[in-house]
Amino acid sequence: xxxxxxxxxxxxxxxxxxxxxxxxxxxxxxxxxxxxxxxxxxxxxxxxxxxxxxxxxxxxxxxxxxxxxxxxxxxxxxxxxxxxxxxxxxxxxxxxxxxxxxxxxxxxxxxxxxxxxxxxxxxxxxxxxxxxxxxxxxxxxxxxxxxxxxxxxxxxxxxxxxxxxxxxxxxxxxxxxxxxxxxxxxxxxxxxxxxxxxxxxxxxxxxxxxxxxxxxxxxxxxxxxxxxxxxxxxxxxxxxxxxxxxxxxxxxxxxxxxxxxxxxxxxxxxxxxxxxxxxxxxxxxxxxxxxxxxxxxxxxxxxxxxxxxxxxxxxxxxxxxxxxxxxxxxxxxxxxxxxxxxxxxxxxxxxxxxxx
Length: 356
Hints:
alpha/beta, globular
């Protein structure tokens, strides 16, 4: 029985994109025991643990944080010195803003350590993956499998399961339904002081309102989904939202939200957790990219479509100017008409495929 300790960043999307690696390890090493850890806190870790419980292949979800030193010490003591056979750091990109702590933790806890080379940090692993700057997260996962002596099987699946025990009761009953994922985690330091501030990944909220109104005029079912941040984003515009648009924001658990995006005919959003959740479950998606790199962060699968807004300063995530930018011209430059045309084109193609 081999044991694995994998570092995964704390966001919803970070866990979702790690599922192909986790599932591939379990498929090729059926007795494997897999634990994960992340940088989080006692308020946030509950969501990570719930997602781990739903997916079903991970034994424990640990966290560390400088703000809870006693807890972090207890995590290390519980994990133990060299008690795991393999330690893996799964980070999406090269950046000088990445922490060196995940590599230090797996060096303490694991006999064999694997991770991608980061030219900005003095981090060493026993097995180093020399990745280029623009390198798909799923290519990285395949290279990790190769370093483990396994087949590069991440892309062999059409979809992955995020909920081992899905509900038999449908949430979406009318089709075709288009789901909007409008919010995204913040990528700029100054944003953290306003929980409702738009992140640099965000498309203007008024554009989402206008797009939803145009689609219901064409007799599509449209659903907005999200949590607390999205509630703050959409509140000033609710009086402009067509009554036929369904507002699910703040009304569903993570289990139910993953079900909604699984049942949808198309999910449209920015580079955010639920759009990756839709794509990895096999739902067609349309993702709007600007400050993040569509090559690195491209959602999983053949049904994932993108609109990439490329200007002179994008993609900027992980570089200095992403931490000082207060005007995301890349995302603002994507027009409602462009997104609407892409949606209609995708749905037309899907309908043709169904008829054939």
